[in-house]
Amino acid sequence: MERKLDFIGAMKLEIERLRLNLSAAERDRALLSIGIDPATRNPNLLLDESYMGRLCRVTNSLALLGQASIEDKITAAIGLETIDDNVIDFWNITGIGESCSGGMCEVRAETEGPGRASSMVSSAVASQSVLFCSQCEKKACSVCCAGRGALLLSSFSSRDVTNYNGVSLQGGSSHGSQVDISTNNSATLDGVICKRCCHEIVLDALILDYVRVLISLRRSARADSAARKALKQVVGHSSRNCEGHQSSDCQKAVEVLRQLLKGEESLAEFPFASFLHSVETATGSAPLLSLLAPFDSGSQHLYWRAPPNTTYVEFVIVLGSLSDVSGVIMLVSPCGYSMADAPSVQIWASNKIHKEERSCIGKWDVQSLIASSSDFYGPENLGKKDKVPRHIKFAFTNPVRCRIIWITLRLQRPGSNSLNFERDFNLLSLNENPFSQLNRRASFGGGPVQSEPCLHAKRILVVGSPVTKEMGLMLQQGSDQIKLKNWLERAPQLNRFKVPIEAERLTDNDLVLEQYLSPASPLLAGFRLDAFSAIKPRVTHSPSPDVNNWDTSMTFLEDRHISPAVLYIQVSALQESHNMVTVAEYRLPEAKAGTAMYFDFPRQIQTRRITFKLLGDVAAFADDPAEQDDSDFRAPPLAVGLSLSNRIKLYYNADPYEQGKWASLSAV
Predict the structure, then answer these.
(1) Mean pLDDT value across residues 187-202
(2) Are 621 and 545 in contact (CB under 8 A)?
(3) DSSP helix/strand/coil, 237
(4) CATH classification of 495-666, choosing from 3.30.200, 2.60.40, 2.60.120, 1.20.120?
(5) Phi, then psi, of 47 in degrees rounded to 5
(6) What phi and psi, each to the nearest 5 degrees, are found at residue 382?
(7) Is the four-CA dihedral 351, 352, 357, 361 of positive or negative sign?
(8) Of 353, 394, 584, 587, whose CB count within 10 A is highest?
(9) In this protein, which residues make up the domain named SAC9 C8D (predicted)?
(10) What are the residue boundaries of the structural domains of the chain, listed by start?
């Protein structure tokens, strides 16, 4: 017979899942493969609603206390390294199958299953460490001790802990209480408390907080991985290779870029500009976006290459804003050019995406441009960082105001290059092959073997100046005329008037609102929603164990930025077929509590019943501690500030002159 799983057991399974770095979908597939319904292992379904609300409040208090404790610890260190040599960590969560070490332990709180090495404390320490509970003064092993977070809760009073089920306890902190760790509690924080002396809700809060920490660490790791992958797509290598840039090198790069631009701006640097579509890239080449990467980023030896036997490529660059483009600068690859791979370049410009509406700016033959200089042939000397790199500038006759630029590179097909007897053929030459070309490019690896000709480039710089400031001045000069013209041409403005409601009903923790209307109600044009008073708490869990290792993260993003909490409101209406049909779904913006927000329906609707349902990350919101009333013993599982009660008003559109003064009293 299958053993029924409790809340602690389900949370331990979740901890193992997070330690194995498995996603929720991978966990569900693994459970289904062995015939277990994932819903039976959901910790949220194993607690009643009232207890879940109190547990969330205690866990939120634990997170605030843990954050205040670590801040005090860092402040007390006065800049020195903090050392955590406690045998018991903040949570001290026992793993699956972990039990009391026996021996001198008098608590015996964890006696189920065979003992194994703890993931939090080594087996040697677990067997040798004998601690004394600060409450009952009994000997306890490390497995039978609660985490140090329980001591923080025991230093404060909370109705959720002291009065739950009528059991009097020492500990807890309400979500709305002020967190102030005083030095009077420093002695007690260095002790331990056994699990027998801890209330069940305190132990549940510790394991819930630990799961939140693991989820946060997994999100941060995924964000770092995504950031490294995105950076590799731009610069072509891992971020570890570009962490050693010195300030002097950056200053030299800025000076070199200033010499290249000659007083103008670079308009096509990623991420402010990008390619409209992808271009096929050779294996082992720098990524396509490296062509638009900032000037001082990436390796000097990497450059973009087209696949072999590709004789034509087209780059479509979308600028960040409307700009006056005066030219394009193409940095030559470190391998240099040869007579075989010097392309012909053609440039178009337009404000629209359609090729039929673009205008040709010019066409240049790179081979003729570099014929007078031997510096463009062969590998480049990359030793001097303050030297202007080899480049070719395609200057426009006049600046072109555009948003999209097309750049095509084309190689001459093999055999199409006619023989020039004056330049290539010399009867007096002592070479064995008098028809061989004098200028040959070395291979990409630097060897003497000639490689097949291919299209390649190091960087593309679009030179010019944005026109936003100029356009702003022009709009400011003609703003008066535009306002007058718009006022004369606009249609009569319709006002919003409130639609009377016969009855309404709230369900699902006040997150669903049903409103019943009269058959004589006018066509509904939309609804007004007053912004919620709930907040997104910045501290959602206790600090992770490596809170001081700031260099471990690449993004330095908080949880609220990595996985932002977003709310949606879904509107459904009863139609003639007696079925509820979804009218629209709106994403709610962040706004100050009570701010009126108006949402128009895609079309006017006639209905007898309309339903509003709040969706999204509702669990990520909490009530403002300053507005909480401790006299209310009931602790709902979700924030009261998300209630739809008295927040939604339906409206219809009508001409205020036709409605009269009496109807204007019902305007919303």
Answers:
(1) 80
(2) no
(3) coil
(4) 2.60.120
(5) -125, 145
(6) -95, 15
(7) positive
(8) 394
(9) 94-205
(10) 47-218, 249-422+433-471, 495-666
Q: Where are the beta strands (DSSP E) in 62-219?
A: 130-132, 139-141
SS3 327: strand
Residue 582 phi, psi dihedral angles, 5° rounding: -70, 125
What per-residue confidence (pLDDT) applies to 56?
86
Alpha-carbon 224 to chain mean position: 10
Residue 440 Cα distances to 290, 335, 340, 448, 449, angstroms = 26, 11, 8, 10, 10
The C-alpha atoms of residue 386 and residue 351 are separated, in whole angstroms, by 36
Q: Which of 74-78, 183-187, 198-202 has the weakest average pLDDT?
A: 183-187
**DSSP single-letter state for residue 467:** -
**Fold agreement (249-422+433-471, 495-666):** yes
Encoded amino acid at 214, one letter: L
**Lookup: tokens for 274:** 């990008």
The answer to whether 263 and 305 are in contact (CB under 8 A) is no
Cross-strand bridge partners of residue 623: none
Percent share of the chain, pLDDT over 90: 25
pLDDT one-digit tens code per residue, 104-121: 888 888 776 443 433 444
Q: What is the predicted pLDDT for the residue at 177?
A: 38
445 pLDDT exceeds 80? no
DSSP 329-370: EEEPPTT-B-TTT--EEEEEEESSS-GGG-EEEEEEEHHHHS
Indicate the range of 184-193, 294-303, 437-446, 571-580 predicted with least confidence: 437-446
Residue 505: name the closest of 651, 576, 579, 611 by CA: 611
Res 512: pLDDT: 95
Number of H helices, E strands in the chain: 15, 20
Q: What is the pLDDT of residues 517-567, one digit of tens each?
A: 998 899 999 999 999 998 888 888 888 876 554 445 556 677 777 888 899
Burial code (b: 16+ CB inside 10 Å, e: under 16) for 413-434 equals: eeeeeeeeeeeeeeeeeeeeee
Q: What 3 state SS string does 151-163 have?
A: HHHHCCCCHHHHC
- Domain 249-422+433-471, CATH class in plain words: mainly beta
Nearest alpha-carbon partner for 381 in 331, 344, 421, 334: 334
What pTM was estimated for this model as a whole? 0.70
Would you give the DSSP letter of residue 622?
A: B
Q: Are 433 and 312 in contact (CB under 8 A)?
A: no
* CB-based contact 325:396 (threshold 8 Å): yes
pLDDT level of residue 661 (50, 70, 90 thresholds):
low
**What span, in angstroms and rounded, lies between the C-alpha atoms of 332 and 298?**
15
Pinpoint the alpha helices (H) of 397-467. 421-424
Least confident of 177-191, 350-364, 375-389, 417-431: 417-431
Distance CA 666, CA 668 (A): 6
The rounded distance, in Å, linking the Cα atoms of 199 and 498 is: 52
Instruction: Name the packing angle between helices 479-489 and 468-477 (round to 10°).
Output: 60
Q: Does pLDDT of 192 surpass 90?
A: no
Quickly list DSSP for 575-615. Answer: -TTS-EEEEEEEEPPP--TT-EEEEEEEEEE--SEEEEEEE
Q: Is 435 left (phi over 0), alpha (psi -120 to 50) or beta?
A: alpha
Contacts of 522 (CB under 8 A, 6+ apart): 499, 652, 654
C-alpha torsion sign, points 141, 146, 147, 150: negative
**Strand 312-331 relative to strand 391-410, pairing:** antiparallel
